[in-house]
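My main concern about presentation is that the manuscript never shows what a single data entry looks like. An entry of this sort, consisting of the sequence and the corresponding C-alpha cells, reads as follows:
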Amino acid sequence: MTLPAVFYTCSCSSQINKDDHFQLSHESKDDFSKLSLRADFPTQIHALPQLYYCKECKEIKCTSCTNIEPQIYSCPTCLFDVPPTSARSENNFCGRNCYGCPVCNHILVVVETSSVDSSNKDQTIITQSSTDRKYILLCTVCSWDSREIGWQFPKPTGLTGTHISFH
C-alpha cells in the first residue's frame, strides 16, 4: 500500500501552455506515473522539501527559479557564525585558525617554536626564544606539525592570509 503524496506547484509553472495545463488537470490518478515520466514534470509539481519560501515576493518557489544564497556561514570546528562578507574576505576559512590535522583530522593548535631538540626526534619539544619567534600548527594527538610541509608563520594570528601566500 502506497501512502498518498501531496505535490505543490511553483509560480513558474503558470508559464506552461494552456493545452499542457488542460492535459495536466484532466489526467487520471492512475496516469500519475505516466505524468512523472514527462520531460517537463520536475518544473511543474514538487514535493514540499523541494520548495522554498521567498520572503520578498511571498510565494513558494522551486529550485529551478531560485538562487540559493546562504545568509550566514559557520565553522564546523568552532561553530562560530560568520557573516558572508567576512567569509569571503577570509577565502572561506575560519578566522579563528581552525585547521584540521591531515593525519588524524584532530584540531591543530598554533604554538610558538624557535628550536627543536634534535636528539629526540620522536617528540616535538617546543622552546621559547624572544629573538626569532616562529609559529607552527601542531596536532596534540599525533604530534604532526606544519614544519613537515615547510610551513612556519611569523605571527600567531592571521594564518589564513599567510597560508594563501604559500600557494
About this structure: Residues 99-166 form one domain. The radius of gyration is 28 Å.
